[in-house]
Amino acid sequence: MSILLGILAAMGTLGVILWRLNAAAEAAKGLAETANDARGLFRRWRWQNRFAADTLDLVTDPREAAAAMMVATAQYDGAMSEREREAILASITGVLGATAKQAEDLLAHARWLTRDSRDLDRCLMKLALVLQKSCTPDQCADVVAMMQRVADADGEPSDVIRASLQGVGRTLRI
User: Which among 11, 29, 52 is the end of a domain?
Assistant: First the structure.
């Protein structure tokens, strides 16, 4: 009988030890998951900071800036009409010398760049700075003329658009 009690005591002790080891392993897994979540949190913060920046700050190419300025002008009063779209594509191919495919790509990229822009003046001024750094006064005048053609595509432009175009002209010293 004492041997049986000794075996039961040993099995009970072994069971408690295994149970405690299992609990320690679970705690270690939880700690590892918490550390992984913390690392993921820092990674998410870095990505949010990288993409929380204004998309217009990413523009360095004057052709992209010109296309985005025309799109912002066209979308100010609502969705871009087909006439405005055609005017933008004609300006990109005619004045900027792009092929039809490049013009479509620039238009799509410009729409992406201006998708979150709510303030026309701020958008145009940010993009005008790109042009100011890399274009001659004649090229800047061409961009303002292209924007005017887009604004005129659906009839008489609003006073806000006219004032914005004049502000861009002043910024670009035209």
Answer: 52
pLDDT in tens, 3-60: 888 888 888 898 889 899 898 888 888 777 777 776 666 666 665 555 546 788 888 9
Do 84 and 155 belong together in one domain? yes
Task: Supply the range of the domain harboring residue 86.
Answer: 55-171
Q: Give the closest residue to 75 by CA, choosing from 171, 169, 161, 143.
A: 161
**Three-class DSSP category at 76:** coil
Enter the pTM of the model.
0.69
Count of domains for the chain: 2
Q: Is 75 helix (H, G, I), strand (E, B) or coil?
A: helix
Map tokens 């701020």 to a residue: 122
DSSP 39-69: HHHHHHHHHHHHHHS-GGGG---HHHHHHHH
Predicted pLDDT of residue 34:
76
Token pair of 104 as six digits: 């479509």
Which of 32, 52, 72 is the last residue before a domain boundary? 52
